[in-house]
Specification:
Layout lengths: L1 H17 L3 E7 L7 E7 L5 E7 L5 E7 L5 E5 L2 E5 L5 E7 L2 E8 L3 E4 L5 E9 L5 E7 L4 E7 L3 E4 L7 E7 L5 E6 L3 E6 L5 E3 L4 E9 L5 E7 L4 E7 L3 E4 L9 E7 L5 E6 L5 E6 L5 E3 L9 E6 L5 E5 L3 E8 L2 H22 L1
Antiparallel strand pairs: 1-28, 2-3, 3-4, 4-5, 6-7, 7-8, 8-9, 10-11, 11-12, 12-13, 14-15, 15-16, 16-17, 18-19, 19-20, 20-21, 22-23, 23-24, 24-25, 26-27, 27-28
Helix pairs in contact: 1-2
């Protein structure tokens, strides 16, 4: 009974995040001994993964997680790219002068995922089953996309007739979004069976950065004029350009998408200024806002509650939280009313 009530409450809460038009923001400061931070991914519980780093005198970095109670922790490695519902993190660690893909588990720590015949690589995405995707480079100079799982180990994904491939995100059905290349990138998806399918362009090169459980893909593509445009793709409508923010219409990219169809990324203006951007399923585009003291920002990840993470141009991680509109609050009240009404009926 309690689980049923909880499920109904979550359903009632979701429209508030979905209909939000304004956001509050919180800076995610670096862990101890580091001056800068970058937030890349946020799970349903609100735990954030990214990294803390120093640029001078030399590059130094560590994977990091930020918890909902305001605490933060170094997890080792070098950079962290994605986090799943269990708090497992995918990222890259430097070993013998080269990057290696890793998975970090809260209980067991870091696990190097690289096969012995690759010399460098990155882990870019992880799903709730602990499957990891990324790319590894081999001695022939070409990179291949991969999927790793605790059950099947390291599996290289096919790349059609292309020389290079990268896996950038993996959803909970096992689909991978990324790109293949013979010198020019082309966005693609791999099915759970490993079959690779290219998904087109807007006129020039394209790369896919994110995928949700419904198979919607987001990324970037140049149009025929060479302008970099954010896109969304699905199997029914194909690749479509996402709109730019007013006065920020020079270039743009979409990096993440949640299961409600909300995408996040950035748009830039004529002088290179960046604005973190969210696109609603109906195509509405919204500026997430810039915190005081910063002049620009970009967004990388979004969870199903509408929480967004990214980085401000002062090289600090940031989290945006949706503020429900009155219509969202009404939906919440109606949803909770349904829950308690249902409970009262059950008690008779």
């Amino acid at each position: 009974m309690k689980k049923g009530l909880l499920a109904l409450c979550l359903v009632a809460l979701q429209p508030c995040a979905a209909e939000a038009a304004t956001y509050t923001s919180t800076i995610l400061n670096p862990v101890s001994s580091y001056a800068k931070s970058n937030a890349r991914s946020i799970n349903r519980s609100g735990v954030v993964a990214g990294y803390s780093y120093n640029i001078t005198p030399t590059w130094q970095a560590t994977g990091a997680v930020w918890y909902t109670d305001g605490s933060k922790a170094s997890i080792g490695g070098d950079t962290a790219a994605a986090i799943n519902s269990s708090g497992q993190v995918a990222g890259s660690i430097v070993g013998a002068g080269y990057y290696k893909p890793f998975m970090w588990d809260p209980s067991t720590g870091i696990r190097n995922l690289a096969p012995s015949n690759s010399y460098t690589g990155h882990a870019n995405g992880i799903n709730n089953s602990g499957k990891v995707t990324g790319e590894c480079y081999y001695n022939n100079g070409y990179n291949s996309a991969f999927v790793w799982s605790a059950t099947n180990g390291f599996t290289v994904l096919g790349k059609l007739s292309y020389q290079m491939a990268e896996g950038n995100a993996i959803n909970n059905t096992g689909q991978v979004a990324g790109s293949v290349s013979n010198g020019t990138n082309l966005a693609c998806i791999w099915g759970a069976n490993g079959t690779c399918t290219t998904i087109g362009t807007l006129g020039g090169e394209s790369r896919a950065w994110g995928i949700n459980d419904g198979g919607q893909v987001v990324g970037r593509s140049k149009d025929a004029s060479g302008k970099m445009c954010p896109f969304i793709w699905d199997s029914a409508k194909g690749m479509q350009a996402l709109p730019f923010l007013t006065d920020y219409d020079r270039d743009g990219e979409a990096w993440g998408i949640n299961n409600l169809g909300y995408a996040v990324g950035w748009c830039s203006n004529s002088v290179g200024g960046l604005r973190a951007t969210i696109w609603a399923p109906d195509g509405t585009v919204t500026d997430l806002g810039v915190p005081s003291g910063s002049s620009g920002c970009q967004a990388y990840g979004i969870n199903d509650l509408g929480q967004v993470v990214g980085q401000v141009n002062s090289n600090l991680g940031i989290q945006w939280n949706p503020v429900p509109e009155p219509s969202g609050l009404l939906s919440l009240l109606l949803g909770l009313g349904s829950v308690f009404g249902y409970r009262k009926m059950r008690s008779r």
